[in-house]
């Protein structure tokens, strides 16, 4: 998959069930996604759509919040006359860290200030 702009919003669209992107073809699936998002021809050219056939997903990169919202709300796509359910979600931004917060669960519920002070250190505000 090509490098996508870091500042863009990335939406992952994952087909449920029998839709195999490799067999159907990326252009057909891309056209179905763009149709489901109800974008105009002028709007479509602003976004980048990439298929990952190994993971059977499609990643859409856009800088437009309205476009991202439309992609996230796609629940199904029409491919060759057959409706396929999909899951669509926004990925974490490039400026976030993935990982677990150790010791964050507790039987008592601390106040917000206690929770925030345990997450934010002076070295890492």
Structural notes for this entry:
The protein is an alpha+beta fold and 125 residues long. The protein contains five helices and five strands, in the order E-H-H-H-E-E-H-E-E-H. It has a five-stranded antiparallel β-sheet, covered by helices on one side. It is globular and about 55 Å long. The two termini are 34 Å apart.
Distance between the termini: 34 Å
Number of strands: 5
Radius of gyration: 19 Å
Helix share bin: 25-40%
Q: What overall geometry do the principal axes of the alpha carbons give?
A: globular
Poorly predicted regions are none
Task: Provide a count of the helices.
Answer: 5
Describe the main β-sheet briefly.
5 strands, antiparallel
**From N to C, what is the helix and strand string?**
EHHHEEHEEH
The chain-level structural class is: alpha+beta
Strand order of the largest sheet: 2-3-1-5-4
Estimate the strand proportion: 15-25%
Region (Disordered): 89-125
Biased composition (Polar residues): 111-125
